[in-house]
Amino acid sequence: MKKIYSCVLVLASLLLFIMGNEAKWNLNEVPLFHEQSATAFAETRQSKPFITEKEFEQVLTLTNDQPIYMKQENLIRIGELQANQAVALIGEDEEYYEIRVGKMPAFIRKGQAKVEKNVMKVPVHNERLGAVKTAQQTPVYTEANRKSDVLIQLRKGYRYPVIQEEKDWYLIKVGERAGYIHKSTVKMDEGVPVLLYHQVLPRKQMKTEMSTISLESFEKQMAYLADEQFTTLTSQQLYDYLEGRLIVPEKALVITFDDGLLSSKEYAYPVLKQYGFTSPQHIISARIDREKDGPAFDGGGLLKYLNVEDLNEMKDVFQFEAHTCALHELGVESGAGLVFEHTEEEIIEDLQTNLQHVPSAVSIAYPYGQYNEQFIAAAKEVGLLIGYTTVEGYANMELSNYEVNRFGMTEKRSFKDFATYVDGDMRWP
Question: By its UniProt entry, which PANTHER family does this protein fall under (predicted)?
Answer without folding.
Answer: PTHR34216, XYLANASE_CHITIN DEACETYLASE (PTHR34216:SF13)
